[in-house]
């Protein structure tokens, strides 16, 4: 099957009547012959599913730095990474983090660690058997 994508840019003024201009809108339409039906629309937090920048922020140590996050005391709260009524975040980009911590490192693996799990390296009943 195929999934055709179409741009509605030339028709935005009529398609987004009554909605906030300047926001990212995710809108789905169904065409049946000469008729077109709007079947779904969302914006703001509802459009995060296709805006991977927020998903990437969720993976970082400091997250989005939004009010709902339960961050430890002393973690940076330099601004809100949320969208405002005007659209994009209302705080300027930072040139460099001040008072931040170093980049997280993966834990070091013990040099004597075997990449083969004990259950495979030692058959049932042998060393490392936990049953």
Helical run tally:
3
Low-confidence residue ranges = 94-106
Strand fraction band? 5-15%
- The number of strands is 2
Mean pLDDT: 68
Shape category? elongated
For the sheet with most strands, the description reads: 2 strands, antiparallel
Largest sheet, order of strands side by side?
1-2
Element-level helix/strand string: HEEHH
Structural class: alpha+beta
Write down the Rg.
25 Å
**What is the percent of helical residues?**
10-25%
What separation lies between the terminal Cα atoms?
A: 49 Å
Characterization of this structure:
- There is one protein chain.
- It is built from three helices and two strands, in the order αββαα.
- By secondary structure, the protein is an alpha+beta fold.
- It has a domain at 20-59.
- Residues 94-106 have low confidence and may be disordered.
Concise account of the structure shown:
This protein is an alpha+beta fold and 131 residues long. It is built from 3 helices and 2 strands.
Topology record:
Elements: H1 12-15, E1 25-32, E2 35-43, H2 52-59, H3 118-121
Keywords:
single chain, 131 residues, alpha+beta, two-stranded antiparallel ribbon, 3 helices, 2 strands, elongated
């Amino acid at each position: 099957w195929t999934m055709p994508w179409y741009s509605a840019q030339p028709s935005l003024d009529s398609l987004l009547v009554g909605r906030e201009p300047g926001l990212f809108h995710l809108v789905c339409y169904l065409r049946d012959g000469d008729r077109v039906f709007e079947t779904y629309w969302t914006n703001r937090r509802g459009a995060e599913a296709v805006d991977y920048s927020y998903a990437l922020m969720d993976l970082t140590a400091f997250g989005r730095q939004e009010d709902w996050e339960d961050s430890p005391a002393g973690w940076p709260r330099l601004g809100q990474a949320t969208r405002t009524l005007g659209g994009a975040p209302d705080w300027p980009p930072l040139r460099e983090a001040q008072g931040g911590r170093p980049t997280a490192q993966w834990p070091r693996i013990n040099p004597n660690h075997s990449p083969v799990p004990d259950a495979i390296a030692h058959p049932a009943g042998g060393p490392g058997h936990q049953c």
